[in-house]
Amino acid sequence: PRSCDQSMADTFPIDLAKYRKLSIDPFSVQTLSEADKSALRENIQLCRDAIVFFTACGSASGYGGHTGGAFDTVPEVCLFDAFFQARPDKFVPIFFDEAGHRVATQYLLSALNGKIPAAHLKNYRVGHAHLPGHPELGCTPGVEFSSGRLGHMWPMVNGVAMANPGKVAICLGSDGSQMEGNDSEAARLAVAQGLNVKLVIDDNDVTIAGHPAEYLKGYDVAKTLEGHGMKCITVNGEDLDALFGALRTAVADSGPVAVICKRKMCPGVKGVEGSCHGHDAIAVAKALDYLEERKLTDAIAWLNGPAKKAAKDPQAEYLGTKGSPLNANRAAFGDSVCKVLAKLPEAERKSRVMCIDTDLEGSTGLKVIHQKFPDIFVQSGIMERGNFSAAAGFGMAKDRQGIFSTFAAFQEMVISEITMARLNYCNVLCHFSHSGCDDMADNSCHFGLNNFFADNGVDEHQATRLYFPADSLQLDKVVEAVFWDLGLRFLYSTRSKLPLIQKEDGSNFFGEGYSFVSGKDDEIRSGKVGYIVSFGDALYRSLDAVERLKKEGFDFGLINKCTLNEVDEEMIRKIGKTGVVLVVEPLGRKTGLGIRFGTWLLERGLTPKYGYIGVTREGSGGLWEQVYHQGYDSASIQAKAKALTMELLLAKTLLSQ
User: Fold this and answer.
1) Which among 236, 191, 216 is positioned nearest to 72, based on CA atoms?
2) Strand bridging mode 580-588 / 530-534
3) Residue-wise DSSP of 148-211
4) What pLDDT is stored for residue 1 in this prediction?
5) Cβ-contact 99, 178 below 8 angstroms
6) Which of 130, 131, 137, 227 is nearest to 178 (CA)?
7) Are residues 614 and 637 in contact, defined by beta-carbon separation less than 8 angstroms?
8) How far is CA 309 from CA 63, 305, 634, in A?
9) Backbone torsions φ then ψ of 508, nearest 5 degrees
10) 186, 358, 376, 445: which is deepest, by most CB within 10 A?
11) Which residues, listed in sequence order, are joined to residue 42 by a DSSP beta bridge?
12) How many CB atoms lie within 10 A of CB 397?
């Protein structure tokens, strides 16, 4: 007989078969009938129940996610679904969304359209479940686009409209995504070309770090778009008659129109409505309260039991870090900066340092700076380009320092601004968290893989240095050492927590007595056969691999290359004279350290057997699963090191014959 858990696993506790595929022609129907309104309300409630439940599964399992945005936009999605059914000849029937974290909408639609089993929604964001944290074309059946990063979709939808004259193209937006500069450019093009694009914007006055009405005074979605010449209709997004009227007016217009839906985040969800907590995956306790009120007992049973059973990293222990606590470098950055700031008198601090946030202060470590030193902190919106340039402009004088932080994936959005800052000899300490792919359920579009793009100047420019500390102790020493250096400095951290790197005697390598020197590599372990060169979260995995290799007779050493883009002449000559050099990194294999290090060796006449491991694949979804998927887990590192050693021995054998 099947277990109770297994029976529950095969079903979805909310009956999605009750969703009614309505057909409403917005070009002929002027007002909703009572029957249609009743059916729409039932559809909206059903979808919102489902979204609360399966995004809460992400909370219960630890894979996280986002509830509020998808929950909010259900009314407009249900209406457009009815429009698509009635007039497929008039619409591009794709729910393009420029806020990809609202991916729960896309997965729910996939289930409603029979592309995936409803029960599979319970695996939201789980590794290898093909339900990653952002929609990815080709990954999930039924998903018809890749959203990319926040605020990047509308410009592409303009092109979709150009390719489909005579049809309406829609794009779901948000007040947060509309802060991005891309959308201003998209608005101007849509207006100038009279594109048949309809923006439906969830304006709930909530972003990750706060309420735009409070921290970004003067920002108004409608006024901004109207300034670009766009027609805007502002409506209560929870008023079904008003929403239908606005959408009907919008689609009847042959040009670009924005329907701005005013509502609180997570309307009607007790303890969450209107709060920033609604942005993330709803807390299990809040979800249970909601489901209790809705009398969805099977959903409650799943959240209280099987939903909490998440797979863990199959490697329970990593040699070289045994018994170590796990610390988040991304959070430690703020603490380290505060230590430097605390040494300055208040007046000097305020005149010399400015720290600007990009709505991610809780994720990138800036929150503690905001709390302790509000006089030098600027809480800004989702405007990476402008915020970076503001930090750079503040740091134009030699005695001033700008501090800027966001996710590493978004570094690619400020490359031109980095060049401008370099040309103006600006001083900016940049912290890009969420580098690499470890612990990144948001998946491919949020991977921070191209960190080396920051070093994009010519040789005669002031040096730009890239730092990727191995653990929180080294990060603290790096910040202390480079804070007042002139020019651009980029410090990278992972989303994942990292153990402390230990010496062979078990003491902390970067603890008491360690001093960081920019450009100098750290020899974590010595070796005779060869060396592994690594950094970031790949370092502790490489350390485990080295310890295990040594036990098998492969005497490999380990180098921590914290300064990514500068050659340590003494160290490279030491390791280059051994038989094997293997670079292991959490960055892109096409753009990372590996493609450079081999050249550096050859330029110095050093010719060890050389190999490099980096990120080569789109994400697997999940958290720890990403590392195994990319092949820089300890076992994969060991296998590559052994293979290179065997190739070296074979080459020597052939030469001796």
Assistant:
1) 236
2) parallel
3) -STT-SHHHHHHHHHHSTTSBEEEEEETTGGGSHHHHHHHHHHHHHT--EEEEEEE-S-BTTB-
4) 40
5) no
6) 227
7) no
8) 11, 8, 25
9) -75, 125
10) 186
11) none
12) 13
- Distance, in Å, from the CA atom of 182 to the CA atom of 149, rounded to the nearest integer, reads 11
- Residue closest to 404 by CA, chosen among 420, 421, 392: 392
Radius of gyration of the CA atoms of the chain, in A: 27
Report whether 515 contacts 477 (CB < 8 A): yes
Residue environment code for 337-372, b if the CB has 16+ CB neighbours within 10 A, otherwise e: bbebbeeeeeeebeebbbbbbbbbbbbbbbbbbbeb
Render 488-502 in DSSP notation, one character per residue.
EEEEE--SS-EEPPB
> Residue 620, exposed/middle/buried by CB under 10 A (0-12, 13-18, 19+)?
buried
DSSP, res 604: T
Are 14 and 46 contacting, i.e. CB atoms less than 8 angstroms apart? Answer: yes
Q: Are 280 and 65 in contact (CB under 8 A)?
A: yes
Structure tokens at 560: 């921590």
- Under a CB-based contact definition with an 8 Å cutoff, are residues 56 and 282 in contact? yes
Which pTM does this prediction carry? 0.96
Length of the chain measured in residues: 657
- The two structure tokens encoding residue 469: 């500390």
Measured between alpha carbons, how far is 129 from 145 in angstroms, rounded to an integer? 18
Supply φ then ψ for residue 528, to 5 degrees.
-110, -40
Which DSSP string do the residues of 643-657 spell out, in sequence order?
HHHHHHHHHHHHHH-
Measured torsion, CA atoms of residues 332, 336, 342, 344, in degrees rounded to the nearest 10: -150
With tokens 């997004």, the residue in question is 237
Could you give the 3-state DSSP secondary structure of residue 239? coil
What is the DSSP-derived secondary structure letter of residue 484?
Answer: T
**Are 432 and 405 in contact, with CB atoms under 8 Å apart?**
yes
Residue 451 contacts residue 467 (beta carbons within 8 Å): no
Phi, then psi, of 402 in degrees rounded to 5: -95, 145
> What's the confidence (pLDDT) of residue 656?
84
Q: Are 468 and 475 in contact (CB under 8 A)?
A: no
Query: CA torsion sign, 591 to 483 to 472 to 408?
Result: negative
CA distance 265 to 279: 8
Give the per-residue pLDDT at 8: 60
Cα 203 to its chain centre, rounded Å, is 22
For helices 34-61 and 297-304, angle between their N-to-C axes, nearest 10 degrees: 10
Instruction: List, run by run, the mean pLDDT of 10-residue segments along the chain (657 residues).
Output: 52 98 98 98 98 98 97 98 98 98 98 98 98 97 97 98 97 98 98 98 96 97 98 98 98 98 97 95 98 98 94 95 97 98 98 98 98 98 98 97 98 98 98 98 98 96 96 98 98 98 98 97 98 98 98 98 98 98 98 98 98 98 98 98 96 86
SS3 355: strand
Q: Which residues pair with 609 in a beta bridge?
A: 580
- Residue 53 is encoded by which pair of tokens? 């439940």
- Cβ atoms of 359 and 405 closer than 8 Å: no
- What is the helix, strand, coil percentage profile of the chain, to 5? 45, 15, 40
Contact criterion met (CB below 8 Å) for 607 and 425: no
Q: How far apart are CA 335 and CA 342, in angstroms?
A: 10
- The DSSP letter of residue 118 is G
